[in-house]
From TrEMBL:
Coiled coil: none annotated. GO terms for molecular function: kinase activity; RNA binding. This is GAF and ANTAR domain-containing protein. Keywords: Kinase, Transcription, Transcription regulation, Transferase. SMART domains: ANTAR (SM01012). Residues 1-20 are annotated as: Disordered. The keyword Transferase applies. InterPro entries: ANTAR, CheY-like_superfamily, GAF, GAF-like_dom_sf, GAF_ANTAR, WH-like_DNA-bd_sf.
Amino acid sequence: MVDQFAAREGRSRTSEGKVVEDGPALRFSEYARSLQAEDGVAPTLAAIVQAAAVDGIPNAEHAGIAVLSRREIRTVASSDDLVGQVDRIQAETGQGPFWSGLRDHVTVRIDDLQGDRRWPAFTTRAAELEVRSMLSLQLFVRDRELGALSLYSSVPDAFDHAAEQVGLLMASHAAIAMVGAQQQHHLEVALANRDLIGQAKGVLMERYRITADRAFALLVRASQDGNLKMAEVARRVTETGALPDRG
């Protein structure tokens, strides 16, 4: 049997045989593998925030993930309360790195909040929370903008190019996890709707002594006439035993 520690050490060697003992690359590789143990999108995003704020990126004291939901900023994962407070300031002022990054599709770095003049309403209030440095990394897949992974520090010039590179990798994992959860949810809804439509067809077949194709056609017509989704028509049929009234 292969010793697990030896195998892990071997996989942590470079092509020249040197062991990568520490540093962002090794920490991120271990972090990426640990995400496989998380069940669901919420624990995965929480793990990413924890890794970013505590383990993965030097000088990051706080971290959070926010999304744009119905034109409003919504915090979906955070290391602590400060993250939500900063997100609320951006939501209330309509200014800040979240909005700029989302609009321009770029990573936004603030080296010193006290000297930054890009968003005066935001920086004035955020500085009161003793935030000096920020790094806002976009969450996206192809042409879909999902939100941002943001890092915060109480010291100026906290984040450099290396921090941006590791942060971008973490942001990509967060985006993939979010899209995967959305796709899983859509699949579950589709399967549930399919079962519901099947039940409704059975009700109509039994009541009117018709074929499955004819029952499906009745559901389609009721959906069109009533301007209702097919799943809603099916739900009403299974609950009442009849097609919904027109109009």
